[in-house]
Write a structure and sequence with these properties.
single chain; about 500 residues; alpha/beta; TIM Barrel; Immunoglobulin-like; eight-stranded parallel β-barrel; six-stranded antiparallel beta sheet
Length: about 500
């Protein structure tokens, strides 16, 4: 069964996923509705709670032509695929022409079939929503040009906008952007100051509640009033007197009360979006600390994020970041995964992460290169995700102290536990590049008298310990560099 306390979200590139299974089947390409039962059963066995289909929506000719015409992108695709052709390009999944399932994936009907098959396995379906912009050839550009931020001739000259023939005459429409980077030149910037545009977006999200169980919202903070003002300055409409996200979330929940919103969000704006109704937010800070920092700073972040601890989605890679198997040294990768996968809140597992894929895919590419399978890493993730399904009850940080006077290696440990009655789960990670030892304070766990057997769910090894001594002295732990235990107490 999936675990609502610590759900696992599996993210699959829709086109790549379908393409890889199509290559295994003779005859015509398969659709989303025909993903093999063996794959869905595998996800269920791992305890996956959510499938996030990345890039399922229809992209247009403009987005694909933009990708094909980008020389650096073509060069990278040729590096990845010896037999690359332009037919492998599907365009950016974040330049959406229309919120209907891509025809190459089987359309809306194929998605509905997949959703039913997932539901039978207790897996919910998440899709993308991109609030900041649309594709340049989205129907709204022609039909409702006022939904977009307008520009002038100077924006054509500086490549900050594009020329559009609209129902209201010729226009210059600004490319989508955030305030810190160059524009996304395959997109058209929506104007969140226009109440009609916000109403259209609200209606669009409400419709999507019939197609999926939740939305991963791209760059959600760009639609906040102060961020939009900082990015675009004054416009033809006054700034809204409320944050539109609140109304959008409420409208969706009126149709589907259990609908889930996941925000891609940065710049310390996570709590603001939670207050506006989002269920989960990215925890990019933890990713950065796991990749680059020490145990002390990992623990400091986890203490600082307490107000939204169970709402923060942890991850070791995604489509914006380098592959974990390439970015994290061996050992550190596994240690970071044990920490992230056993915290409260969702844990995101990226397509290819468990198999040790190292090549970061351009999001415009619809096919992935063959890579060696890391059998050891596959086994590690299988044990970790199965073990993490044992999460129950109350989560607590576990204090570490020196194993003896003068020993300093205790400071390299990260530890936390879950307790519900006599059920205990303990994570202990030596998040350091040297051998370490410490005592773990187990006073917040419920440990009975007599012999308690600790089973390491990562390895299957067992350790009998006296319950009274564990309560009085704590648990002595000794681990190699980047070593980890995931202990279940009792049977």
């Amino acid at each position: 069964m999936s675990n609502s306390l610590r759900p696992t979200v599996f993210g699959a590139y829709s086109h790549v996923w379908v393409r890889e299974f199509s290559q295994q089947s003779p005859g015509r390409p398969i659709t989303l509705g025909e993903i093999p039962d063996t794959e869905l059963d595998r996800l269920q066995d791992l305890g996956v709670s959510w499938l996030w289909l990345i890039g399922a929506w229809q992209t247009g000719l403009h987005g694909r032509s933009h990708a094909v015409g980008h020389p650096d992108l073509r060069r990278e695709c040729r590096r990845l695929l010896d037999d690359f052709t332009i037919s492998d390009m599907v365009g950016s999944p974040y330049a959406i022409q229309e919120y209907r399932v891509h025809r190459a994936l089987g359309g809306d009907e194929a998605l509905a079939v997949l959703r039913k098959r997932l539901a039978k396995r207790g897996i919910r379906l998440m899709l993308d929503f991109v609030p900041n912009h649309t594709a340049c050839d989205h129907p709204w550009v022609h039909q409702h040009p006022d939904y977009y931020v307008s520009g002038g001739l100077e924006d054509l000259e500086t490549k900050r906008g594009f020329f559009a023939e609209t129902a209201d005459g010729d226009r210059v429409v600004r490319f989508g952007k955030d305030p810190n980077f160059d524009p996304w030149t395959d997109t058209a910037q929506l104007d969140w100051r226009n109440p009609q545009a916000v109403a259209a977006l609200t209606a669009q999200v409400a419709k999507l509640t019939a197609m999926c169980d939740g939305l991963r919202v791209d760059m959600a903070m760009l639609a906040l009033n102060d961020v939009f003002r900082r990015t675009w300055g004054a416009g033809p409409w006054p700034e809204p007197t409320f944050e539109p996200w609140s109304a959008i979330v409420s409208a969706a929940r009126s149709r589907s009360p259990s609908f889930v919103f996941l925000a891609e969000v940065y710049w310390n704006m996570e709590e603001r979006l939670i207050q506006l109704g989002f269920d989960w937010v990215y925890d990019k800070v933890l990713y950065d600390r796991l990749r680059h920092d020490c145990a002390h700073n990992v623990c400091a972040h986890l203490q600082g994020i307490d107000p939204i601890q169970s709402l923060a989605m942890r991850f070791l890679e995604n489509h914006d970041e380098a592959r974990a198997a390439a970015a994290f040294p061996q050992g550190r990768h596994e240690a970071a995964a044990v920490i992230a996968a056993t915290l409260p809140g969702p844990f995101f597992v990226h397509f290819g992460q468990m198999e040790g894929r190292k090549e970061k895919l351009p999001i415009q590419l619809g096919r992935a290169p063959a890579e060696p399978l890391d059998e050891k890493l596959v086994g590690f993730y299988r044990n970790l995700l199965r073990g993490a399904r044992s999460v129950h009850g109350q989560w607590n940080r576990v204090a570490c102290r020196p194993a003896w006077e003068g020993s300093e290696t205790w400071s390299g440990f990260v530890a936390h536990g879950w307790a519900e009655g006599a059920k205990n789960l303990l994570t202990a990670v030596n998040f350091a590049p040297e051998h370490g030892h410490c005592y773990l304070d187990l006073s917040r766990l419920h440990i009975p008298d007599g012999t308690t057997v600790l089973t390491d769910l990562l390895t299957g090894e067992t350790y009998p310990r006296d319950g009274r001594e564990l309560r009085a002295r704590g648990l002595f732990v000794e681990l190699p560099a980047w070593g980890a235990h995931l202990f279940r107490f009792g049977g």
